[in-house]
Amino acid sequence: MSNTIEIRQRQNLLQVDDLRMVYKVGRVDVPALRGVEMRVKEGEFLAIMGPSGCGKSTLLHLLGGLIQPTTGRVSIEGVDISKVSDAVRTRIRRDKVGFVFQRFNLLPSLTARDNIDLARTIRGIGSAAQNGSDAERILDLLGLRNKMHHRPSELSGGEQQRVAIARAIINRPKILLADEPTGNLDSENSMMVLEMLQELNVKYKQTIILITHDPEVASNAGRIIEMRDGLILNRVENLYYAVEQSRLT
Amino acid sequence: MIKLIFTNLTQRPTRTAVSILAVALGVALVLVSVGLSYGALNDSAERTRQMGDVMVQPSNASFLQVLNSGNFAVRIGTVLEKVDGVAAVTPVLSKFLAEAFHLIYGIDTESFLKVNEIFQILEGRMFEGAEEVVVDTNYAHAQKVGVGDQINILGTLYTVTGIFKEGIGARVLLPLVTLQEKNGTPDKCTMFFIRVRDDATIDEVYEELKVRTKGYKITKTAELQELLAANTPVFRQFITAVVTLSSVISFLMILLAMYTTITERTREIGILKSLGASKAYIIKLILQESLLICGLGVLVGYGLTFVTLQIVVATFPNLKVDISEAWRVGAALMAVGAGIFGALYPALKAAQLDPIKALGYE
Q1: At what angle do helices B279-315 and A86-96 cross, to 10 degrees?
Q2: Pairing of strands A12-25, B150-153
Q3: Hey, are the CB atoms on B276 and A86 less than 8 Å from each other?
Q4: B65: pLDDT confidence band, cut at 50, 70 and 90?
Q5: How many other CB atoms are found less than 10 A from the CB of residue B178?
């Protein structure tokens, strides 16, 4: 419980104000988001839940600066990424955001280690040797040391997702955005991935925003936001989360 | 980034190989064409240069001997001999044998040997009779001809009496009078070659000849190579056409290869963008991949050129090859330039991709 209170006292890492997104399909305007308001504090583990087509993926993409909203604000550490140039938004995404996708999105031609290494290279930090050893360390941590030279096609779904998580966090981003990270996994691997995310949040204070349509997956987060038809319906504090936190710490 | 480029290339080995081969063909096309063209031109210029220090032709004559007829009076030689500094003058009637694709020279042995002090019969003797000829080592080797054999020139059989060291004049030499009769131009020649007494006075003799023989075409043979390249009809146009064609082939192949690559790798580009790769990073990635293909293409092209020219020269020993360093570098730059321009549009297209659409691409 004390951790939940602590989070409440922290500053907003992410702030979303009146966020609207309208897609044009032919001549028809299709609203995906209809004025979303949201605050996320540093170290929070937030789950955004809702049925398919409710706008949760669009919201995640906007939070990560992959797309620009029609109107509204998305601020990361006070910088409104909806107003900055494409180059600045790319830099913010590179420096402050990590993505984990449902389809893992690993580069098929690279090994597990090289996939992780790539995120470091794109950010332009560390020597090849340093990056390599960082990648190895993180793979070790995730129990994938013996798979580091394997290509994605040689890894199971769970292993691929763990590599994807490793790649997303190698640059120590401020926010980890996970888009249905367990959507393509069996229950055992789903559990493993969710535990990994919880551990990252609790042990390393990693801010995580996870979207899912599965209430069981959402239950791992400290706070759950429910979305429908491009709007946030309600916010739920997850009391079980505090119990989980104390277990992990 | 290098690792990503390498793995991208090795992941699609067939397309990579085809792209490399296309660039290599462009390079080889340029180098083989240029090598054979300059080889023929320079060989002709060099062999003509060895004939004497100065060449005198009628005013309307071409530097390309193939195009000239024998309409220059032999008696003009006596005027040339009187010019200060001239040591010897020899008339030459040249004729191009289209079927055999080489020149023959009708020469006056006595004056010819005065002008050409380095002329050397390696086997046999100089011709004496009207139906005797001497051939150079290259001709003897290519045609498998030896002393005592007979060769057919313009429908007449001539006996080979000697084989001379190649590098002087034409590949086949025969008596001037014989060729004049055969050509139907008695007492005529195509040009004169002059040897000056002192090499240091070539310029002075050249100027004096210009004054004394107004209206004639006077050429220092040392300048013939450049003059031939500059004045040979359609030579430059031919080279320009070959280089342009090769550049276009390389450009189109790289454009096609990289465009297909980008389409196939749309999703991967989306992943790179989601990781925060900038537009510059993606453009650089694709350009470097293209440059690597071009670099390998250039190396394979050099190899292909070598093999092709070996086969050509083995098949046609008369042909000479001359590829300067400048052309080797030029062909490489052409390929690299085509690679950069060919990859530029796909690279810009990739950089502009919407990351979400790219990530959703199947």
Answers
A1: 100
A2: unpaired
A3: no
A4: low
A5: 20
Residue numbers in B near A64 (CB within 8 A)? 274
C-alpha–C-alpha distance, residues B135 and B30, integer Å: 33
The alpha-carbon radius of gyration of chain B (Å, integer) is 29
User: In degrees to the nearest 10, what's the CA dihedral of A145, A146, A151, A156?
Assistant: -90
User: pTM of the prediction?
Assistant: 0.76
What angle separates helix B279-315 from helix B13-49, to the nearest 10 degrees?
Answer: 50
Neighbours of B12 (CB within 10 A): 17
- Name the residue among B1, B10, B274 with its Cβ closest to that of A105: B274
Interatomic CA distance for residues A70 and A230, integer angstroms:
13
Quick check: A118 and B275 CB within 8 A? Answer: yes
CA distances from A238 to A16, A45, B292 (A): 21, 10, 54
Q: Give the C-alpha separation, B269 to B272, whole Å.
A: 5
Half-sphere exposure of B327 (CA within 13 A, CB side): 24
> What domains are defined for chain A?
2-109+172-248 (3.40.50.300)
Helix axes of A187-204 and A239-248: crossing angle, nearest 10 degrees: 80
Helices of type H across A80-150: 86-96, 112-123, 128-141
d(CA B337, CA B286): 14
A101 touches chain B (CB under 8 A): yes
Q: Report pLDDT digits (tens) over A210-222.
A: 999 888 888 888 8
- Measure in Å the smallest separation between the Cα of B280 and chain A Cα atoms: 10
In this structure, the number of other CB atoms found within 10 A of the CB of residue B322 comes to 17
Beta strands in chain B (DSSP E): 54-57, 72-73, 86-97, 102-107, 121-124, 132-136, 150-153, 156-164, 172-175, 188-189, 191-196, 217-220
CB within 8 Å: B274 and A90: no
Give tens-digit pLDDT for B125-145.
999 999 999 999 989 988 899
